[in-house]
Amino acid sequence: MRQRRDVEVREVGTRDGLQSIQTVFSTAAKLEWIRLEAAAGVPEIEVGSFVPPKLLPQMADSAEVVAGALAIDGLTVAALVPNFRGAQNALAAGARKLNYVLSVSEAHSQANVRRSVQESIEDLARIVEFRDAHPEFATVTIASGVATAFGCSIAGRVPLADVVTAARRLVEAGADELAVADTVGYGNPAQCREIFTEVLAVAGDVPVAAHFHDTRGLGLANVTAALEIGIRRFDASLGGLGGCPYAPGASGNVVMEDLVFMLEAMGLRTGVDLDRLMLAREHMANQLRGETTRGAYALAGKPKGFVGAAG
Ligand code: ZN
Questions:
Q1: 244 a catalytic residue
Q2: Which of 6, 63, 95, 304 could in theory staple to 268 by disulfide, Cβ–Cβ 3.0 to 4.6 A?
Q3: Which residues of the chain have pLDDT under 70?
């Protein structure tokens, strides 16, 4: 039975986190993580990415992980796809949702996927066309990330007008959802209000999600700012997994447990059971070889008398 939720939290650590650390999780360990987190009530998990295994060996088993995750009742199995080829592979593997990525920053786009912003939008249109031409994929959701929306570690500032133009053109190209991303953790709450207000205005009926990194400690502050503007879908990673072994101080996404705690404490139902979420965290943390987890809730536990939003 699906629970009523006010806010949807989506796990991305199985992709965003695992691709940024040195420990390589086995397929079985990834699937156990996914099962435990789905059992805690997390409705959607980005279980892997369809990139050439040469580039990201940690993601080489994504087709198997998708296949295993599809057996979990009620879970939306999402996969990151960087291009048309990746989308075809993800669809063939059975992914129920494709998370495509467009970098608003031209410099980041070239460095990350070796193509221009314009070419990225054309690629998304091709993916949508391919899905629409194949009835067996008719129910697959195609989302697009709007990456480096808050700034870029190569180009620096990213103009708001470029973010809004990219969002509008992705919607025109057929994206079913947008996920505006602070890829490098440059964002602040004031910027969130500005960006999400403008993006919502061009998104129309297309839902808009937020993907924040906690690199400079503003992850949850950015979530509350986005909540005020009406955003109800947030990416996060268990234990804040992520960062980069070559970039000291870099960190992962907003910590899932802290996010769920905050939302539930604010009276917003996530459908996630915090105690069961901690079991998933324990399993994930046990696999790590040298990397550390983050998160304040895991250290401090529940406040006395705490009850979740569902009462
Ligand atoms: Zn990210």
A1: yes
A2: 6
A3: 1-3, 244-250
Spatial contact of 270 and 231, defined as CB atoms under 8 Å apart: no
As a CATH number, domain 8-300 is: 3.20.20.70
This prediction's pTM: 0.96
Please, which residues bridge with residue 182 across strands?
212
pLDDT at residue 245 in the model: 58
Distance 187 CA to ligand 1 centre (A): 13
Taking the centre of ligand 1 as the mean of its atom positions, its distance from the CA of residue 254, in whole angstroms, is 10
Domain ranges for the chain: 8-300
| Distance from the alpha carbon of residue 74 to the mean position of ligand 1, in angstroms | 24
| Options 244, 268, 285, 288, the catalytic residue | 244
C-alpha 307 – ligand 1 centre gap (Å): 31
